[in-house]
Design goal:
This protein has about 725 residues and is α/β, with parallel strands linked by helices. The protein is about 30% helix and about 20% strand. The protein is built from 21 helices and 26 strands. The longest helix is centred in the N-terminal third of the chain and has 17 residues. The structure holds 1-deoxynojirimycin (NOJ). 1-deoxynojirimycin binds next to loops.
């Protein structure tokens, strides 16, 4: 029997209460266990969230032991009337025991295959502990580093976002979702949550349909195409409503238009919060709005559990609507094999391999922003002192949204540096006390490890100032006064604005919060065992006042290229700040250099009909390593439509490829641009390619200057 027939048969045997039970998710830990078991026995629970608080990325989360998870499952299977398995979910965001870099840093790898392998590893570790469903990936495009949650996302670019969405979903869900080592993924937070005014969490956003579809929707489309099992609605208010109450967003757009066939879960109490948002007058109305919008499962606020029965009995919610939601949830339970293997089973875990993958991820996530006088990589002959507030830190390096990461596996930057270069001098204190000064005075260069704690970013952790914290700025100024070259290692979750601090630093390695292997990757890069290859997934502003600032904005009517060039006649956007960002999207240095030559395209003209038939523009160039060490380059291809029915971005990423090249090695790189790459949603929300001329740029970041023109004929 196929899954849908099995569900039909099951539905015929389910009472109204049991159907509603499938739509109810509650949190469970040791303290409310008996109550939860009672609900399970009565078929009143479809899923358990293994979290003990509403902001589980910030608070320490007690772990629910695997045998307790199995015991709850046994209660569902043996003691509830129909024995339908529970679905156990937990926030496995960028790691389980082994922790990968924060998702924003993973985007900086521009290496989707590596990211996929990383997620496969953590899915296995989590599945081994009885977890079946994760609330990731977060696909909220964000152009605002003030928003603490930008660290959980894919960055500012929809194209990079689609690539990351695909591999994270496939990494979690594996080749066959029914396998024992998979997790059902959840694309969140649908939609536009990254666009809230001022970066204020739980706030408001206004997004036109044009921008919603062309920017914010793209990664979600990719997740759906990759078979994502679930989607979570966001907390914020959007265009005068909330996603959890919007039938247009959930039912019409997500389910009908995009064809999403999994189920939709609310965020933690986002149904009940429709009341605080002034969208529902009470919990019953909140439940009615959400189920009518198409939200299938209620996370943790029991609005469905308390009111759906009455809503169905009074005819305000049809049985058809209820069946639709139950069917979607049961469909995912069948698809992920819960009826065949409901309990956790032992999955062999190769921990040292997982650690190696995590190390490759952190190696490739870190971005070298500045390297004056080629001070890096450090020569072992040089007398180096390492100091700084994060030198001896472990937990911060794991980052926000790590519930089960093993801190003991993390080596501090101090230990990692000592391991690679035993003669390095580590100051006895992270503070700049006078007993550090003699060492610094004798040093050839000083490594300063700066950064923020895990709780400075993440949910409800926004900032009004994203500059280097003032006390850390004062700190580098004091060391700088001693006349030594400084190498700044920045362990932050979000992009920070470094216009003032940058001149004090001879080199800057942006190391993010890169998880278990952060310390080792920093040491390997500083001493040249690894050549840095990360590229920025988000623009780095000069100062907070430039935010929002992003590379894919349309041309302006006068200060035409404010992201791209500056005028010297005073016609810049701001009187008190330059108009360009400090570091643009796609930027990142290497210890070697690359050249791009012989850019060509074939053909240079295609008709819309030919594009629809699958023909593509084939762009190629010769990429050469012209330096003297092996390195990896992310070659990027950008597009600009010169004139369209809607103002299109000055540049849009349409392809990238990461290549490793030995000194003097040359490789051919190619990009294929077809209908999909040239199309956009127009004013009528139609996915169209319009005829006209397009500029193409290929190079090392969004400032790429090798250009070509292609044309599309009607
Ligand atoms: C609230 C967060 O917004 C969401 O991302 C998370 O998955 C849920 N809490 C569950 O912890």
């Amino acid at each position: 029997m196929d899954i849908l027939s099995k569900i039909k048969t099951l539905l015929n045997t389910m009472s109204l209460k049991e159907k509603i039970g499938q739509l109810n998710q509650e949190s469970c830990d040791m303290e409310n266990m008996e109550l939860i078991k009672e609900r399970i026995r009565h078929g009143q629970l479809g899923s358990v969230i293994l979290a003990t608080s509403a902001t589980s990325g910030n608070d320490e989360q007690r772990k629910t032991p695997t045998d307790i998870i199995n015991e709850l499952q046994r209660t569902a299977l043996k003691e509830s009337p129909l024995g339908i398995p529970l679905l156990f979910g937990r926030d496995v965001i960028h790691g389980h025991k082994t922790v990968l870099p924060i998702p924003l840093a993973l985007s900086a790898t521009f290496h989707p295959e590596l990211v996929k392998t990383g997620y496969r590893c953590i899915a296995q570790e989590a599945a081994n502990d009885g977890i079946q469903w994760t609330f990731a990936p977060m696909l909220d495009i964000s152009r605002d580093p003030r928003w603490g949650r930008c660290i959980e996302g894919v960055g500012e670019d929809p194209y990079l976002g689609t690539k990351m969405a695909e591999v994270i979903v496939k990494g979690f869900q594996g080749d066959n979702p029914a396998d024992k080592d998979t997790l059902a993924a959840c694309a969140k937070h649908y939609i536009g949550y990254g666009a809230m005014d001022g970066g204020r969490d739980y706030g408001q956003a206004e997004i036109s349909d044009y921008t919603l579809r062309n920017i914010y929707l793209r990664p979600f489309q990719s997740a759906i195409k990759s078979g994502v099992a679930t989607v979570m609605t966001a907390f914020h208010e959007l265009n005068g409503t909330a996603p959890s109450a919007s039938r247009y967003l959930v039912h019409d757009l997500l389910k009908e238009e995009l064809g999403f066939d999994g189920f939709v879960v609310s965020d933690w109490a986002s149904i009940e919060q429709l009341i605080s948002q002034g969208i529902a007058r009470d919990r019953q109305q909140a439940a009615e709005l959400a189920i009518k919008a198409g939200v299938d499962m209620d996370m943790s606020c029991r609005c469905y559990a308390d009111y759906l029965e009455e809503l169905v009995n009074t005819g305000r919610i049809s049985m058809e609507t209820l069946h639709e939601s139950v069917t979607r949830i049961l469909y995912i339970k069948y698809k992920f094999g819960l009826f065949e293997h409901p309990y956790s089973t032992h999955i062999p875990i190769n921990s040292s391999r997982h650690r190696e993958i995590a190390k490759s991820c952190s190696d490739e996530s870190m971005v070298l922003l500045k390297n004056q006088n080629h001070i890096l990589p450090l020569s072992p002959q040089k007398r180096i002192v390492a100091i700084g507030p994060l030198l001896y830190e472990k937990r911060a390096l794991l980052g926000n949204w790590v519930l089960d990461g093993d801190e003991e596996q993390v080596s501090t930057v101090a230990n990692a540096l000592k391991k690679i270069h035993p003669n390095i001098i580590l100051t006895s204190s992270p503070y700049l006390w006078e007993d550090c000064l003699p060492d610094i005075r004798k040093a050839d260069a000083v490594i300063v490890v700066l950064g923020e704690s895990k709780k400075m970013s993440g949910e409800a952790n926004s900032l009004a100032h994203v500059e280097l914290p003032p006390e850390q700025f004062a700190y580098i100024k004091r060391i700088h006064a001693l006349g030594k070259p400084l190498i700044g290692v920045m362990c932050f979750g979000r992009p920070i604005a470094m216009e003032e601090a940058e001149p004090y630093l001879e080199a800057i390695l942006y190391a993010w919060h890169c998880g278990t292997c952060t310390g080792e990757s920093i040491a390997s890069i500083l001493y040249g065992e690894v050549n840095p290859s990360g590229k920025l997934p988000m623009t780095f502003p000069r100062c907070t006042g430039q935010i929002p600032i992003y590379y894919n904005h349309p041309a302006s009517s006068r200060h035409e290229y404010f992201y791209y060039t500056e005028t010297d006649n005073g016609a810049n956007t701001y009187h008190d700040c330059r108009s360009t960002p400090l570091y643009p999207f796609g930027y990142g240095l290497s210890y070697t250099q690359f050249s791009y030559r012989n850019l060509s395209v074939e053909p240079s003209c295609l008709s819309i009909k030919e594009l629809l038939a699958g023909k593509t523009f084939r762009i190629s160039a010769a990429l050469q390593n012209i330096g003297n060490c092996t390195g990896k380059e992310v070659a990027q291809c950008y597009l600009h439509a010169r004139a369209s029915s809607m103002a299109r971005p000055l540049r849009e990423l349409k392809g990238f490829v990461k290549k490793e090249l030995a000194p003097l090695e040359e490789q051919q790189i190619t990009f294929q641009l077809g209908y999909k790459e040239l199309a956009f949603y127009n004013a009528q929300s139609k996915w169209v390619v319009e005829p006209g001329l397009f500029d193409l740029y290929v190079g090392t970041d969004c400032y790429a200057s090798n250009a070509l023109v292609i044309s599309v004929k009607p």
